[in-house]
């Protein structure tokens, strides 16, 4: 039985390496098929996902996939983004490899432009996952020319899922102190997050959008500058107060290990902004009334390592 498993691993590794070679084919369809295969083998539903992502990361998949971000074929760009975002998911080494590859971040900035086409959400998810699962990647991401402006514009002017993933990416980036300072300098609070909090809407995805904007706001204003400097954000006329309730609910989903609004939130990613929110006296009573204390007690009882990001 062990011999059979060993043979299976060898065959799987060979399949991955063959696909990586195929990524540089002159035939665009071959490149697309290879990127799709790598995505499927890196996906969390694959029984060898973690091992496969390690092999991909050490066998040259990242630079080959990053070159495909400039492909003239939309499907090829989509499959390349899908493979990169899945490789970054819960894999810190792959996250750093992506942001340190010369073709990666500029290629993603190009895809994030609101007039580019249909790959905005795909590109934003690569940025989101790199920032979510590797805090050290966030300053490099924010330092890339055009990246912050592209995310800011997409957050406000984007459509469908792209604008929601852009807010998620800003939330993940905001957990890095160095990246947060760059985001503040780019007026992310005034030009993007405050606008999100003024939006009308309904449904889980809208609630998650507001909650992630509020968490990013808390990370930025609580960690880098006094909250009172942005007192206009905490208005009775926007969705800020309602979002506090949503964030506490999200912590409950995170502790249960359940996906909500299509997102898996880890406890750390929710507790970090809650810590910042609790620095503002006006937030303390509402948070307690929403049941935060019971959830914090539960978190301490169930504490374990490795629950780092969303």
β-sheet strand percentage: under 5%
The percent range for helix content is: over 70%
Distance between the termini: 37 Å
Secondary structure tally, helices: 18
The overall average pLDDT, rounded, is 90
Strand count: 2
Strand count, sense and barrel status of the largest sheet are: 2 strands, antiparallel
Enumerate the spans where pLDDT stays under 50 for 5 or more consecutive residues: 1-7
Gross morphology: globular
Structure characterization notes:
It is a single chain. The chain is mainly alpha-helical and 310 residues long. Helices cover 70% and strands 1% of the residues. The chain contains 18 helices and 2 strands. The chain has helices at 2-22, 28-42, 49-58, 61-68, 74-88, 92-99, 104-112, 120-133, 137-143, 147-157, 160-173, 177-185, 188-197, 204-223, 240-256, 267-277, 281-289, 292-301; strands at residues 259-260, 263-264. It has a two-stranded antiparallel ribbon with strand order 1-2. A hairpin with a 2-residue loop joins strand 1 and strand 2. Helix 14 packs across helix 16 (267-277) and helix 15 runs parallel beside helix 18. The longest helix is centred in the first third of the chain and has 21 residues, at 2-22. The two termini are 37 Å apart. Mean pLDDT is 90; it is low at 1-7.
């Amino acid at each position: 039985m062990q011999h059979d498993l060993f043979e299976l691993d060898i065959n799987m590794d060979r399949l991955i390496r063959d696909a990586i070679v195929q990524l540089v084919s002159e035939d665009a369809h071959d490149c697309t098929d290879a990127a799709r295969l790598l995505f499927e083998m890196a996906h969390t539903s694959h029984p060898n996902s973690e091992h496969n992502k390690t092999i991909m990361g050490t066998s040259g998949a990242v630079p080959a996939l990053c070159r495909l971000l400039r492909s003239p074929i939309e499907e090829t760009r989509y499959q390349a983004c899908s493979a990169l975002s899945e490789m970054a998911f819960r894999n810190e080494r792959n996250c750093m490899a992506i942001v340190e590859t010369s073709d990666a971040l500029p290629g993603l900035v190009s895809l994030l432009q609101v007039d580019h086409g249909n790959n905005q959400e795909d590109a934003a998810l690569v940025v989101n996952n790199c920032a979510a699962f590797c805090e050290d990647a966030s300053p490099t991401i924010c330092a890339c020319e055009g990246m912050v402006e592209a995310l800011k514009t997409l957050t406000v002017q984007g459509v469908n899922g792209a604008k929601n993933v852009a807010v998620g990416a800003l939330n993940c980036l905001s957990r890095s102190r160095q990246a947060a300072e760059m985001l503040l300098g780019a007026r992310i609070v005034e030009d993007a997050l405050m606008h999100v909090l003024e939006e009308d809407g309904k449904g889980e995805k809208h609630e998650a959008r507001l909650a992630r904007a509020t968490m990013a706001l808390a990370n930025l204003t609580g960690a880098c500058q006094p909250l009172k400097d942005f007192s206009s954000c905490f208005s009775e006329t926007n969705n800020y107060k309602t979002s506090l309730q949503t964030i506490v609910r999200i912590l409950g989903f995170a502790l249960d290990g359940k996906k909500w609004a299509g997102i898996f939130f880890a406890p750390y990613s929710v507790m970090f902004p809650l810590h910042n929110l609790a620095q503002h006296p006006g937030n303390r009573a509402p948070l307690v009334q929403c049941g935060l204390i019971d959830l914090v007690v539960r978190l301490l009882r169930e504490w374990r390592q490795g629950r780092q990001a969303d």
